[in-house]
Amino acid sequence: MAADDLSSPARKRGRDEEEEEEEVVDGEAAQKRARGEDPEGGALLGLANYEEDEEDEEAAAAAGRRRANGRHEEEEEKEDEEEDEVDNDVRAPERRPRQVELRRDCPYLDTVNRQVLDFDFEKFCSISLSNLNVYACLVCGKYYQGRGLKSHAYTHSLEAGHHVFINLQTEKAYCLPDGYEINDPSLEDIRHVLNPRFTTEQVCNIDRNKQWSRALDGSNYLPGMVGLNNIKETDFVNVTIQSLMRITPLRNFFLIPENYRHSKSPLVHRFGELTRKIWHARNFKGQVSPHEFLQAVMKASDKRFQIGVQSDPVEFMSWLLNTMHSKLKSRKRNRSIIHDCFQGELEVVKEFHKKHIVEKKEDGDEQNGDAGSDIVTETSRVPFLMLGLDLPPPPLFKDAMEKNIIPQVPLFNILKKFDGETVTEVVRPSIARMRYRVIRLPKYLILHMRRFTKNNFFVEKNPTLVNFPVKNLELKDYIPLPKPKDSEKLRSKYDLIANVVHDGKPGEGCYRVFVQRKSEEAWYEMQDLHVTETLPQMVALSEAYMQIYEQHE
């Protein structure tokens, strides 16, 4: 028993000596590997694949940065760990990016599923909710952040076995977890759907295109005549967008992003993206979801217009045009594409009573006498983007058939408000008599019929039908217009291109719009996702709420 106790320290010392010898051998082998030699005597291969050599590349890059910047090793290791967590190509452009292998023979391209790809929604990571460096998985369509070793996209590629991703900002495609960039022309159609592009020649010929496009599900659609998804009670936005898409100069302006690159407003850029998606001929589906545009509207309007709350398209149109003008105008000139299309000018004559007090003095005492008033007239020039027309009140009594008579009124009768002679009485902000006269006509004339009146208890809707011409509205026959200059021609003839209609009770109904397709001169009825061709005669039978007329060339 004693002999065993004495011999145990000797055995322990022997094991320690053997471990030290193994460590020495392992250290020598490691040094040979670092010099590029085989520990068994041969030479190692010069290059290894991405997974085997990733740690060596990181270490070499870290050492190079330490020599270049003279930083401490501990700080450099900490920075390398941060680079692994998130791809910092966007956050830290001053750092030298890691070289990425470019390959054309990716074996996973057949796993790309175009049916699930939808780039209409906000580009946020589905896990971290960050909008920095977001990649879309081309297999399941979900968004993930980064492509480093500890990023959400890298983890998703390992857990789900989805390997093809595209950067939503740079449009570069990558294979994860291998990490190489994919250069394959088969992905070009995805890039065009992610960011539609138009050349100047395509923009000029877009109204001549009569060809239908085919979506992935086999359905056909007309570029520019696609339905808009109603997120939740956002039909007032949809009819406004569909109407503005018929304004040729406005549409052509927003189809080319270089025209508004100077603007920093997200609302302007989201409207441009939505315009390009509506007119794109290579979409994967026959409808567009204006989700990103609605988010920009909510933010820019301080939630005056928001998803889930029904609003008035006339108020939204007025707010949108004024806001986009303020974001697009330059400092030197107070003009924009909005004013070039829609701005006209009115001469306003305002008559109101100016009260004054007559004072009489008798025997040195002041007494208040009779109050008198004078009629004061003020004339001013006021620019306008749209004109509001007043409808005659509906009848109060029913006819012999116990049905309310729906009155009709010609458009020319209610246009007399702007002949310079008809008096309109207003009570706000003060009681006055107003006369209006158009002194400059815009290229695109927006009219809205004031169907809704609010009182202290509820909102009333006027059901009066307005009879209007679809083509050749000649304004000079009904309202006086200023004489043009010698070199100019009086352009007072207009054609209808969009007609917004309200159906149902006030506050509960829905909106739809009739629009004209110029390439065929055909009319279409659009209500959210539903797009159907209709006859021009049906356009005139509706309860018009807002109309857009185009001036003849």
Could you please describe the fold and organization of this structure?
The protein has 553 residues and is α+β, with helices and mostly antiparallel strands. Among the domains are: 102-192, 2-Layer Sandwich (Herpes Virus-1), CATH 3.30.40.10; 195-333, Cysteine proteinases (Cathepsin B, Chain A), CATH 3.90.70. The protein has helices spanning 2-34, 50-69, 73-85, 152-160, 188-194, 200-204, 235-244, 248-255, 266-278, 291-300, 313-328, 337-342, 411-414, 536-539; strands at 102-103, 134-137, 143-145, 164-167, 173-175, 180-182, 213-214, 220-221, 227-228, 287-288, 344-362, 365-384, 387-390, 408-410, 424-426, 432-440, 444-450, 452-454, 459-461, 465-467, 473-474, 493-503, 510-517, 522-527, 530-534, 544-551. The strands form seven sheets. Strands 13, 17, 21, 22, 23, 24, 25 and 26 form an eight-stranded mixed sheet that branches. A hairpin with a 2-residue loop joins β24 (522-527) and β25. The longest helix has 33 residues, at 2-34. The radius of gyration is 36 Å and the shape is elongated. The model is unreliable at 1-12, 32-64, 66-90 and 366-370 (pLDDT under 50). Residues 29-38, 88-97 have a biased composition (Basic and acidic residues). This is USP domain-containing protein. GO terms for molecular function: cysteine-type deubiquitinase activity; zinc ion binding.
